[in-house]
Structures are given as C-alpha cells and as structure tokens.
Input
Amino acid sequence: MDYVPMVARWLHFLAGIMWVGLLYYFNFVQVPALKAANADGTAAGITRHVAPLALLYFRWAAVVTWLAGAALLGPNFGNAFSLAPGYAGIGIGAWLGTIMLLNVWVLIWPNQQKILGMKPATDDEKNKARRIALLTSRANTMLSLPMLFFMAGGLTHKAAFGL
Amino acid sequence: MKNPLDSIWGTIISGLVLTAILYAAVKNFLM
Output
C-alpha cells in the first residue's frame, strides 16, 4: 500500500538528479566550454554529439520528475498547487518545478533545435534562439535554488517553518 | 542595468535572493 509513494519518491529523486544535473552541466560546463571551443574551432564535437544527447535525457528527465512528483503528492496534489494552509512550502516547490518544466519544453527545446540545426533557421533566427535558450536555461538555474530549498523540506516543512 | 542572468554568479545570487524572498513570503503569509 505504501509502495506507490516510496517508488514515486525514488523515481522523483533519480529523474530530478538527472534533470537538474544536466541543467547544471549546461550552465556550468557546456556554455563556457563552447565559448572556448568556438575560439579554437573544436565546437562541432560538442554541438553534434554531446548537446543533442544531453538535451534528450534533460527534457525527458524533466517529464519523469514532474510525473513522479505528482504521484508523490497523491491526494495532496490540489492542496499543494492551491497553496492550502500547511502545504504552501511544498506548493511553491511544485509550482517552481512546473514553471521549469514548461521552460524546458516551450522555450529551451524548440530554440535548441534551431541552434543545433535540427530545425531550419536563418542565422538571425539562430542568434535570437541562442539568446532565448541561454536566458531560459539561466532562469531555470536561478529557479532551481528556491525549488530545491522548498522540495528539501518535504511535504510538511517541519524544519523550515517550525510546524 | 546588466541582466544578472548573463553571468553565472549573477544567476546564483539571484537564486539565493529569490529563495530568501519566497521563504519570508511563505513563512509570514502562507503557512
């Protein structure tokens, strides 16, 4: 009977680590590495072989994380998302995670497809896509700090709010 | 004014500030 939340929590952690881990990889490793690689003409290896694979795991890990999180909330799903008394802490975490998921699928992925040549785009469109993808990725990195703070408190946030 | 998200440190500091603001809001108004 308690297996569903147990497995959901496990999956939420596994997929969440992959999602946020790859987000941090993009922001802390790939962006500065690409700048250096563009300067010495070695960027193709990253953009052709590393980035598409990293993006594949990144965007699907985001979906699995959200679904496992929703399963973990179970009957408290509505309380969390409506920020009901006692559930506002986890609710803010859930909202931040949801905004991050939408950023991945609505802004980062479609723009990355243009940047990596998976979708036809002019140079002008690619430059615009680069800026949008970078800022959205950075916004998600920024949001990950409060998101993880509120997720780390669990469902009740006893430690953080003295409940 | 420069966009703080243009640098990784600006991003981290913005995230910390947002955490503090949301924590205070939840503690004082929502719990």
